[in-house]
Design brief:
The complex is a heterodimer.
Chain A lengths: L1 E12 L2 E12 L3 E5 L6 H8 L7 E6 L2 E2 L3 H7 E4 L11 H11 L5 H11 L15 H13 L5 E5 L7 H16 L3 E6 L2 H7 L2 E6 L2 E7 H5 L6 H10 L2
Helix pairs in contact in A: 3-5
Chain B lengths: L16 H45 L7 H19 L2 H10 L19 H35 L3 H31 L1 H20 L5 H4 L1 H8 L2 H21 L15 H7 L4 H16 L3 H26 L7 H21 L13 H30 L6 H23 L3 H4 L3 H24 L5 H29 L7
The chains are: A alpha/beta, B mainly alpha.
């Protein structure tokens, strides 16, 4: 069964064509990377997939549910948005408590402890989110997306603001959940990480998917790195 | 390279005028685009027209030369000063912008974080932009409406021109006072609150002891009564002094100390009614109100206009010996009106952008805001009504006053929530929304105001009518409540 199905999706913001007939299918348990330059339409597509934005036309299904049923989509997914923005006046710990209450998680204590340990955030757990560093806020957003152990993860630049140690930890975690059958949809600029993690990638430019396939298919045996391919594809329009 | 990092006097340094003018222009554009992005081109273009129409009809319905002209003029001045107070607290906004993220919106006010311009200077330009914007967007159309309405009502042009001028001045005074207090609050919360209490106490003592004619305290209004130019000059000087004071007092480096808090979400949740989700959202709301330091100002902001109106009516009753007596039921009708500002404030404490990725709908958050709003305002407004009823010697009217207070509060809150969702202050700048709000709220409240005058006779029909209208308002409120989900559930929390 496909975890994500996108069929002929169009999205305009006034005169700006953000998505132009985008179609893709992601199978369950797949690690999929969406690559593209700034303003290419990555975040717009991710917002449509997670019900934060409605497409002008076309069909989107997430785990068999139309993305217009936003509550059902968000219940079954973990989402890390483009910018880290936990509530300013809750502490880090309270934010995760809130997430657990909203998601009806029973063993909240245990899970919160687990993620604070994972990100070594014990020291900052009683600090208001507005006073946390960007990196800590990003760790908190990642924790809030992972805490209910969803079947599908939507991640928009998940490694942003993380130091190399936590980039590796998160990468290893994502790799392990993928092996357990979790589907991951990731937007990123970091070609190296995409190359290491993703089974399939698509490159989006000016709202259109210009290429999609496994890393090897995209290379076509030319031995080029993903970064070179990306730059070539984007520059050729 | 020279920077503007220290010394408030550098705010007036010459040689940077063209840069500042450019920044002023950019901020004006930013404000316009921000409004347009929230309410659309139509809404933002037609807002001044709606203000024009409202003030036009104000003069046509209540021509200033009628017997109640003085009370109408005084009330308009009072309301405009409250409007000025409400929009002038920009220093607190500046502090917020510098110390935390306000969703995805980034403002030019954040420039001092990365560019060679001081925070004081940026705030001064931002404040001037606010004055210019509000003058252009609301005071000028308001004045033009008064003048046009005056022509239709056959009033002399000089009279309406004078009211336009004094209303503009009183709005400016309210804005500059609010700016000064908000700047003081950013320097020290205690000092700021002390200033507010001192100002309020001084006014009450001066008026209570008959030391000063209360109209003399509002210089533009006194100018209107006396036509003595000294008072308009005094108003202008006060505005300038208050604005300069605000800029001098403002902290150049805005930082907030990092505090630690024991987790309280679970503890508070357990004390609240409802299921786990509702309890958690409500607990979040209260924690945000408390920790952002907004709880006190929100309650004060709800109570202050009610007290001000009571003060004004008290003076009118005493000074004018008018035929119409404003009883406790009349005060009940005002509660809903002033509650709008409180509801709007609750929506500005936090952007809730993070909820965009959670299984939560906008209507759930609106319901939480409304629960918080009712918890805050019902008790305060009931105490207010009972106190006014006792002071005025109308204990028999207190139950009717409480009923009217609660029903208008209920109705107006649901109308506001249905029309404006979680973006009340910006949605009310949309012409269509403002027009709908005015049409839905003003007629029933006017009916209750008129009925309140007949209650003095103690006739059964007037009491029955008040009860029936209140019941209709509650039912209508429930209808608007049902419309909140369909209207707002497709919306986002973030910008």
């Amino acid at each position: 069964m496909a975890a994500v199905v996108v069929m002929d999706v169009f999205k305009n913001f006034g005169d700006l064509k953000a998505l132009d007939r985008v179609s893709l299918k992601i199978r369950e348990g797949e690690f999929f990377g969406l690559l593209g330059p700034n303003g290419a339409g990555k975040t717009t597509l991710l917002r449509i997939l997670t019900g934060q934005l409605e497409q002008d036309s076309g069909e989107v299904k997430v785990l068999g549910v139309s993305s217009s049923e936003r509550l059902r989509v968000r219940e079954s997914c973990g989402i890390v948005p483009e910018s880290e923005s936990p509530p300013s006046f809750l502490t880090a710990r309270e934010f995760l408590e809130l997430v657990c209450k909203l998601r009806g998680i029973k063993d909240a204590e245990e899970r919160i402890r687990r993620w604070f340990t994972f990100f070594m955030m014990e020291e900052g757990k009683d600090v208001l989110c507005k006073d946390l560093s960007k990196g800590q806020r990003q760790k908190l957003m990642l924790s809030s997306a992972f805490i209910h152990e969803p079947r599908l993860l939507f991640l928009d630049e998940p490694f942003i603001n993380l130091d190399p140690i936590y980039q590796r930890k998160v990468r290893d975690h994502l790799d392990s959940v993928r092996r357990e059958g979790v589907t991951v949809f990731m937007c990123t600029h970091i070609m190296d990480l995409a190359e290491r993690l993703c089974e399939r990638v698509a490159v989006i430019n000016n709202g259109r998917i210009t290429v999609m396939g496994t890393i090897d298919q995209i290379r076509k045996g030319k031995g080029e790195g993903l970064e070179d391919i990306f730059i070539r594809l984007v520059e050729s329009g | 390279m020279r920077t503007f990092s220290s010394g408030w006097w550098r705010v007036v340094e010459l040689g940077r005028i063209s840069r500042d003018l450019f920044l002023f222009k950019c901020m004006l554009l930013e404000e316009y685009r921000l409004q347009r992005s929230y309410v659309g081109s139509f809404g933002s273009y037609f807002f001044p027209l709606v203000i024009f129409i409202l003030s036009f009809f104000l003069v046509v319905i209540f021509p200033f030369e009628s017997t109640q002209s003085s009370s109408v003029i005084d009330t308009v001045h009072l309301l405009m000063s409250i409007y000025g107070l409400a929009v002038g607290g920009v220093a607190l906004m500046g502090e917020q912008v510098m110390t935390r993220r306000l969703g995805q919106v980034n403002l030019l006010l954040q420039l001092p974080q990365v560019q060679n311009i001081s925070f004081r200077r940026t705030m001064a330009i931002f404040y001037l932009k606010e004055i210019f914007f509000y003058q252009l967007y609301s005071m000028v159309p308001f004045g033009l409406g008064l003048i046009a309405g005056g022509v239709v009502a056959g009033l002399p042009l000089t009279g309406t021109l004078l009211v336009s001028l004094t209303v503009t001045m009183v709005f400016g005074l309210g804005m500059s006072l609010s700016f000064a207090i908000s700047a003081l609050l950013t320097r020290s919360r205690t000092l700021g609150m002390l200033a507010v209490v001192l100002i309020a106490l001084s006014v009450v003592i001066l008026v209570w002891t008959d030391l000063v004619d209360p109209v003399k305290l509002v210089h533009p209004l006194y100018f209107h009564k006396t036509a003595d130019l000294v008072w308009i000059l005094a108003s202008f000087i006060e505005m300038v002094i208050l604005s300069i004071f605000a800029i001098v007092v403002m902290k150049e480096r805005v930082t907030s100390p990092v505090k630690r808090y024991r987790s309280s979400l679970g503890t508070i949740s357990r004390l609240l009614p409802g299921n786990d989700r509702k309890k958690a959202l409500l607990a979040k709301e209260w924690l945000e109100l408390w920790r952002s330091g907004t709880l006190g100002p929100v309650i004060a902001g709800f109570l202050a206009p009610l007290l001000a109106i009571y003060g004004l009516v008290y003076l009118l009753n005493r000074g004018l010996d008018a035929d119409i007596r404003f009883n406790v039921v009349f005060f009940g009708t005002l509660i809903g009106y002033f509650g709008v500002m409180t509801y709007s404030w609750l929506n500005n404490v936090e952007q809730n952008e993070s909820l965009d990725v959670m299984p939560v709908t906008v209507s759930e958050v609106i319901a939480t805001k409304l629960r918080t709003y009712f918890l805050l305002t019902c008790l305060v407004s009931t105490i207010y009504i009972v106190a006014v009823g006792l002071i005025q010697g109308e204990p028999i009217l207190i139950p009717a006053g409480v009923l009217v207070g609660l029903s208008t509060n209920f109705y107006v809150a649901y109308v506001t929530a249905r029309l404006t969702g979680i973006r009340t202050n910006t949605m009310l700048l949309d012409a269509v929304t403002l027009m709908k709000f005015t049409l839905l709220v003003t007629p029933p409240l006017l009916v209750l105001v008129v009925l309140s005058f007949y209650l003095e006779d103690g006739t059964l029909w007037s009491l029955s009518a008040v009860i029936i209208v209140s019941a209709i308002l509650v039912l209508a409120g429930l209808l608007f409540r049902m419309g909140i989900g369909p209207r707002w559930d497709g919306g986002r929390f973030g910008f």
